[in-house]
Amino acid sequence: MGSFMAAWKDGEEREKAIESAQESFAFLEKLIQGKKYFSGEDEIGYLDLALGWIPLCLDIMEEVGGMKLVDAEKFPSLLEWAHNFAEIPLIKERFPPRNALANYFHKIVGLKRSKK
């Protein structure tokens, strides 16, 4: 939730949301280290599916919010997992088009910002 909130918050609230998101990503980084998938196997499991939004939405949220939440230096295992997960044919086929999702996030963030 912190990564989404960071996209539309300002000032101290934004910094807190970014920090919260990065703490969550650090936790996930530790869980995934040394594994291809969170299941610990060569097949995806429940947690992989639950976190499947990361490879699809994270870079869009970073773009819309004008911020960087996850970089390769701090989160190499998480980014490798995201790449592996997104390349699974069954998953890849079901991801919505990036442009449509980016437009959706731009609208939602714009609405949130206008209600401040």
UniProtKB/TrEMBL annotation:
Residues 1-105 form the GST C-terminal domain. One of its GO terms (biological process) is glutathione metabolic process. Its EC number is 2.5.1.18. One of its GO terms (cellular component) is cytosol. The keyword Ion transport does not apply. The keyword Amino-acid biosynthesis does not apply. It holds the Pfam family GST_C_3. This is Glutathione S-transferase.
